[in-house]
Design goal:
GO molecular function, one term (chains A, B): kinase activity
Keywords (chains A, B): Kinase, Transferase
Distance between the termini of chain A: 34 Å
CATH class of chain A: Alpha Beta
Number of domains of chain A: 1
Structural class of chain A: alpha/beta
GO cellular component, one term (chains A, B): cytosol
Radius of gyration of chain A: 18 Å
Protein name (chains A, B): PfkB family carbohydrate kinase
Organism (chains A, B): Edaphobacter paludis
Helix content of chain A: 25-40%
Largest interface: A-B, 41 and 41 residues
Oligomer: homodimer
Number of helices of chain A: 11
Strand order of the largest sheet of chain A: 5-4-1-8-9-10-11-12-13
CATH topology of chain A: UDP-N-acetylmuramoyl-L-alanine:D-glutamate ligase
Strand content of chain A: 15-25%
């Protein structure tokens, strides 16, 4: 079933030990959409400027992504400049030009109204809440956020969290949100804020899902967490968008399944890792544009092989 | 088959957010022996001082550990003082009194000569090499080391590494030893130094094994790494000895099996995680003295459940 994603479609200027790119297509909604598009139809709500060309749009439409919710505004698109050093586990932001994103007012096209899966990418929680309230009929809502919103927009964020099915954030963010260093205690605290399920991304160490009594609507009780591996990679060319690609693979798979079961959720975590591992192999969206479904299945099997006792 | 371990039997004075203990029984060889004792017979070579009582020895002998290789010397036993703060992912050493360990000359009792599995716990690589050379007939040698030996005793360490079947160290150590930030590249470099297999411990994120062409003597080729999870724990009382307990569970299981196969190696990685997860539940050796084989199997299944797609 279709996923509706609201978030940034932007340009990134990135420098890593493997090279540099200037104004390549990026943004959370872009990475998410491409990754999810291999599993399920995706519809995007975003705003771009006059520098967003037909060629940029084709990157999304070629993957079947519905772009009619991408609004064109006067001015330039959101532009992020950043660099990675050493082990590249943290981005250093050198510049954030919000441009047309500054006055972004998400509008939901009528054709998107029947979307059953909503993804609130990492944007102002006030905007996340506004989109959410316009989609009362969705079956599932998954969301992301970041340190900036946790620190300075906690009231608006709290409203979004109350109503989330899945919150997908990284280690540092969950510890910051809970103000607690222990991951399990932090996860419990975050689950008490509203999300039915919490997925914590650990970068090169994989991801952990924490479940509440409300994780599975069908009465399934799961109290154990679930850990999915990341693929050890000899070369990470550009980590930008890895988390959004994880989210896309994860949520795209979930949305493609008839029912949310523990097995489906676990498999989705693996597909998240798979799409994240592809994303970092090239700069920008390059790898996610060209990966094939066969390569995805092959890598899924590789993830199983490196983590399952009977895998070899 | 029997494991021979050489390493420290010591006293630890530890402070963590959960309390403090003074002069509790510790040391790498102690934690290793207790953890391994649930899988296979263990023989210890170490030196202790006059403060090591029959009661301390009984902690080991009650678990069937052969202590005739523990030499008594005049003076006090090795004593480590340390503390953990915050997320407790790093120990802060407040004092290291080598005492009788300063002049330790490992001697191998005749009764130990037929040991087929040797574990070189984290001690001076010159001593590790000396013990190794006296045990030419062993089937397998597994070793540990730490930043201090990597930095200041690299020549002696290089000699030990050349001849190791398995090197078991943590993330920071492998990156330091290889002088390389990327884990895969660092692992490749360390494998080129000699160890047939490298197991990297990631603390709360589990562990990864990297295999070389020489990992399995029987012609089995494995180029994929293997990742074992750690159990997310709401309470870590005392992380001291977690790595040694991992090594004990891992190597104890390996030594208990008739043959080294990829499946045996994977299972050993899981048992390593299991024993590490018990070790941190109480101060010092308390938990590893009292755990039962049933609890170990139960937790092994839990590790499988939290990491396997079909686990729930």
């Amino acid at each position: 079933m279709s996923i509706l994603v609201v978030g940034s479609v932007a340009f990134d200027s990135i420098e890593t030990p493997h090279g540099a790119v200037d104004h390549c297509l990026g943004g959370a909604a872009t990475h998410f959409s491409l990754a999810a598009s291999y599993f399920t139809p995706v519809r995007v709500i975003a705003v771009v400027g006059e520098d967003f060309t037909a060629q940029h749009e084709a990157v999304l439409t070629k993957r079947g992504v519905d772009t009619q919710g991408i609004e064109r505004a006067k001015g330039l698109s959101f532009h992020w400049t950043g660099s990675y050093e050493g082990n590249m586990d943290e981005a250093k932001t050198l510049g954030t030009d919000l441009n047309v994103f500054q006055t972004f007012e998400p509008k939901i096209p009528d054709a998107y109204a029947d979307s059953k899966f909503l993804f609130l990418a990492n944007i102002d929680p006030a905007l996340q809440a506004r989109v959410r309230s316009q989609m009362p009929q969705v079956r599932m809502v998954c969301g992301d956020t970041m340190n900036y919103w946790i620190a300075d927009h906690s009231e608006n964020l709290a409203k979004v969290l109350r109503d989330l099915d899945v919150l997908l954030i990284n280690d540092g963010e969950v510890r910051m949100l809970a103000d607690e260093r222990n991951l399990v205690l932090a996860a419990e605290k975050v689950l008490s804020m509203g999300p039915k399920t919490l997925v914590v991304k650990h970068g090169e160490y994989g991801a952990t899902a924490f479940f509440s009594d409300r994780s599975f609507g069908n009465g399934t009780k799961i109290s154990r967490p679930f850990r999915a591996p990341a693929l050890p990679l000899a070369e990470v060319v550009d980590p930008t968008g890895a988390g959004d690609s994880f989210a896309g693979g994860f949520y795209g798979y979930l949305a493609s399944q008839p029912e949310l079961t523990p097995a489906v959720f676990r498999t989705a975590m693996f597909y998240g890792g798979v799409m994240g591992s592809f994303a970092v192999e090239r700069f920008g969206t390059e790898r996610l544009q060209s990966v094939t479904r066969e390569e995805i299945e092959e890598r899924f099997n590789l993830f199983k092989e490196i983590s399952h006792l009977e895998g070899a």
